[in-house]
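For the sake of transparency, this paper describes our internal protein records without simplification. Such a record has a labelled line for the sequence and another for the backbone structure tokens. Nothing more is needed to write down the fold, since each code stands for a local backbone conformation. For reference, a complete record is included directly beneath this paragraph.
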Amino acid sequence: MPVNWGLETLKWKILLRGSIPFSRLLKSIVAGITVGFVTPGRSGEFIGRVMFLNDDNGARVFYLSSVGGLAQTAASLLVGVPFVQLWRGDIFITEIVAGSALLYLFAFFRFDLLNRVISTVPFLQKYGWIIEQGELPDLKIQLQTLLLSFLRFGVYLLQYVLLLSFFGVGDAVSLTTHSVVYLLAQTFSPLMPLLDFSYRGASALYVFNPVTDNSIAVLSAVMLVWFINLLLPAIIGYLFILRQKSIRLPWLSGSL
């Protein structure tokens, strides 16, 4: 878990291109987990992140956080393409995953094109929800961000393989294949992490069904990863937020 969120913090530091201390950025990430924990699809993460940045430009934080999310999703899909084929042997499903990977990769590397469209929306212009083209990451930063996203995916994958092995489910090769597919299913969960037990459980039982019929072992591993990666950091982030003397979100509703 520390490696996972440490990599995400490093990715965040690279995207922001500032001199903000790593410890403050880590608090920003963990606070984002807390807010994202109670919002659909973890959509509120950027609100938690901005709390510890003292950055009046909320649009910049939001868009750069979105760019980081695009990189993570693109990395997950790219890794998943061959494993989805191994899992089902269905070329149609594999092509959907491959096509999605290319779309996310294009959106990540050419976010500047989308930003040009966003910048022409009068409503967003009125409220200052625009990020300047020069504030977007250049190619070097994009490649570094994508590399860190691949490493984070590897950490997630290792967590599942180790925990499922601990509970006596399958062998390393089959667990790797099915864990990658399960991580892809989790990537597009529309629910808030606080309430997505049913989705996580049902998708895990479906994906790992060819490997084992030990439902308790599969669900135990899945819930442990949920606890390690989300619940525990969310609790820590909540404590960070409580200790924060002032939370400045002037771009939303003034100082809180």
Observations:
- The chain has one domain: 2-251.
- The radius of gyration is 19 Å.
- The mean pLDDT is 87.
- Residues 80 and 153 are 10 Å apart (CA to CA).
